[in-house]
Amino acid sequence: MLKPKPARLERCTFSTSRQLEYFTPDELTKQIGHDIDLWPLAITKELIDNALDACEAIPVPPSIIVTVDDDRISVADNAGDGLPESTLRKSQNYSVTVSNKAHYKSPMRGRQGNALKTVWAAPFVYYAKNGGGHGGVEVVTPAYAYQLIASLDRIAQEPRLTMSPLERAFVKSGTVVTVQWCSEVA
Asked: Which CATH class is domain 19-100+108-180?
């Protein structure tokens, strides 16, 4: 009697986009360097670091205002023309790292080097982890004002950032970044 040949296991090779590393709690925790409960604090620190760096580059003595509410954090600076729109747009490309200080990181400031990418993704991931929603970020400068809403295209394995103009007065100088956090699950 002939023994049947064992079935051959056919394995498929899967590719997963690294862009999604910013859009899961575990991976974003690695990017930010803190557990999800500390993300608002870590993101605030990175925004303050970015404001200090921007003021030093001009140079202008920094004036940084941090506003904390139950569900949002704003960091405003006085750094001249503010965050260049080209940098804002480039920072939304999760395929590359965008930084003007990649070689100037220090133990105390600028540790992420990818802070804007984490800023765009963190409210989305935070909301998803806490019951749904999308969160969002507003960026206001003397030249532009936008709201950024992150989402995922899970089929294409790509993040999607929707950048919509805000209809409000622009600031006179510097940049104001407001991150909308989930204060409680609705």
From this structure: alpha beta
Domain residue extents for the chain: 19-100+108-180
* Partners of residue 144 on adjacent β-strands: none
Provide the β-strand partners of residue 167.
none
Cβ atoms of 35 and 26 within 8 Å: the answer is no
Report field, pTM of the whole predicted structure over 0.90? no
Helix axes 25-32, 115-129, angle to 10 degrees: 140
Burial 84-114 (b: 16+ CB within 10 A, else e): eeeebeebbebeeebbeeeeeeeeebbbbeb
Decide if 116 contacts 161 (C-beta within 8 A): no
Residue range 44-102, pLDDT digits in tens: 999 999 999 999 999 999 999 999 998 899 999 999 999 999 999 998 988 777 666 65
Closest CA to 152 of 177, 130, 131, 135: 135
Q: To which residue do tokens 């999604």 refer?
A: 20
Q: Give the dihedral sign, CA 29/72/149/117.
A: negative
How many whole angstroms separate alpha carbon 133 and alpha carbon 152? 12
